[in-house]
Design goal:
Length: 485
């Protein structure tokens, strides 16, 4: 269990291990020996979507299995009469209903956790099946920080859908906490809570200080894989279902975030060891496959990580005046070989046809857009580059195969990264309009998310290009601190 820190101004216990949500002048900052960072307790009597220190907090005991029946249903007591979902809004159907109740949590908290399991988890991880429900529920059950983060995320989602996105959002104001996070003692529950907080930033538009939470989850996951000094594939197989899910999700977020941050992926060596051979890139081993987490084949995850590393290497070489173009092209061709390798679309087993189709379509979009990403690194951000143009056209064709409502919800929201890259690198008015339309369809349907922010970022790139200014879409993303997952 994480160590407990007593705050003199709050009647609550706070779990150490996550970024603190409070103002810079918090009394916690004055403690010279304060060991780490943390997440505030979830309020017991009032709802709020703010992360500021004005929360009404209460002592939350560690949850336990309820004496109530497993079929007991909690409800949302609301202060307002606006608890009806907006017309046209569709919540995903829960795969497995889990109805537990914790007797020493109040009705609102139990309802928030049920809402998280039934609706929010489905949006966070669109391609995951019901097999993750019980491991995630169990972890939330045993971890204060995971429970509190899940409640916060569920409340933000619920109010956003009720108010059609008009929910105020306050980013963490305590900057000192981001230096303390590296020394914090993080648990598996804290890592899940960090991923929930990354989702909180994504749900609220994709911008903000999400990097501290993601780095915390990544460092913890890497530590787990390296703890037993065995090969990464064996380490991952030996993990519990919940830990394996946290590691693979952290790995995926890290790869895509590296494009935004123009950095070497933290998991690069792990990904190379997992998927760097023909046999290891096979998605049939469920414990190692990324298809069930994010709908992306292992080899494409490897290629995306290598492209991010190549972009970082090129940027460093240009800064130092030692870029070797032949070496850049050679490395780029090796990555292109990975992306153009033939894949057997029918080799995944144990999945229903529709779920398999959605994952396959998502992976196809990632593959085509990864080639756009690759050639922008090799050739530069030139929309008239033949390789960039042809692969943007292929990405659009893949997206057009996912235009029915149900498929679009799973595919388009999963490939915001792909749409952003292709949108930034096309001058074709039809493609531009198509990408904007697909993003705004999803923003309108689900209310929460970063689709609207990505559309604005693309327009910013287009406006700069039309003024004749040189545009590096990666720099634009880096400055915007937009997370594209």
């Amino acid at each position: 269990m994480s160590p407990i820190v007593e705050c003199p101004l709050f009647s609550s216990h706070i779990v150490v291990g996550l970024p603190v949500m409070q103002d810079i002048d918090s009394p916690l900052d004055s403690r010279e020996n304060y060991p780490g960072v943390m997440l505030p307790a979830y309020p017991s009597s009032t709802y709020t979507t703010s992360l500021e220190s004005s929360w009404t907090q209460s002592i939350l005991p560690r949850p336990h299995t309820s004496e109530f029946s497993a079929t007991y249903h909690a409800y949302f007591p609301d202060e307002e009469d606006n608890n009806v979902m907006p017309i046209g809004f569709h919540l995903p159907h829960p795969v497995h209903n889990i109805h537990y109740n914790w007797s020493n949590l109040n009705v609102q908290q139990n309802a928030s956790l049920q809402h998280y399991m039934d609706h929010v988890l489905r949006i966070q991880y669109l391609h995951a099946d019901g097999s993750i429900d019980r491991p995630i529920w169990t972890l939330i059950h045993s971890s204060d920080s995971a429970r509190e983060a899940a409640c916060l995320l569920a409340d933000f989602h619920r109010r956003s859908t009720q108010l059609q996105g008009a929910v105020s959002y306050a980013a963490p104001a305590d900057h000192d906490v981001y230096t303390r996070i590296q020394s914090a003692s993080v648990t598996e529950g804290d890592a899940l809570a960090s991923l929930c907080m990354v989702s909180y930033f994504l749900f609220s538009g994709g911008q903000g200080r999400w990097q501290a939470f993601l780095d915390s989850a990544c460092e913890f996951s890497l530590g787990v894989l390296q703890r037993n000094h065995v090969a990464s594939n064996w380490a991952l197989k030996l993990c519990s279902d919940s830990m394996r899910f946290i590691i693979k999700t952290s790995m995926w977020f890290d790869v895509l975030a590296s494009a935004t941050l123009i950095r070497r992926p933290k998991f690069l060596e792990v990904i190379r060891s997992l998927y760097g051979t023909t046999s290891a890139a096979d998605d049939r081993e469920v414990e190692l496959s990324m298809m069930g987490v994010m709908g992306c084949e292992n080899r494409i995850v490897l290629a995306l990580a290598e492209i991010a590393d190549l972009a970082y290497w090129k940027d460093e070489c240009v800064r130092a005046g030692r870029l070797s173009v032949p070496e850049l092209v050679r490395r780029g061709q090796e990555i292109e070989t990975i992306l153009k390798s033939i894949n057997d679309p029918g080799r995944l087993h144990g999945l229903d046809a529709e779920k398999l189709r959605r994952r396959r379509l998502t992976s196809d979009v990632f593959r085509a857009s990864a080639l756009v990403y690759l050639h922008s690194v090799i050739s530069g951000d030139h929309p008239q580059c033949p390789e960039i143009m042809s692969n943007i056209a292929e990405t659009v064709e893949c997206l057009k195969r996912a235009e029915d409502v149900s498929t679009a919800r799973h595919v388009v929201r999963s490939v915001v990264f792909s749409i952003c890259i292709c949108g930034c690198l096309t001058d074709d008015p039809q493609y531009r309009n198509y990408f904007i339309r697909r993003l705004m369809e999803q923003q309108t349907e689900t209310v929460v998310g970063n689709c609207s922010g990505v559309a604005q970022l693309m327009r910013r790139v287009w406006n700069s290009r039309e003024r004749g200014e040189p545009v590096d879409w990666r720099v634009v993303m880096q400055h915007s601190q937009m997370l594209l997952v």
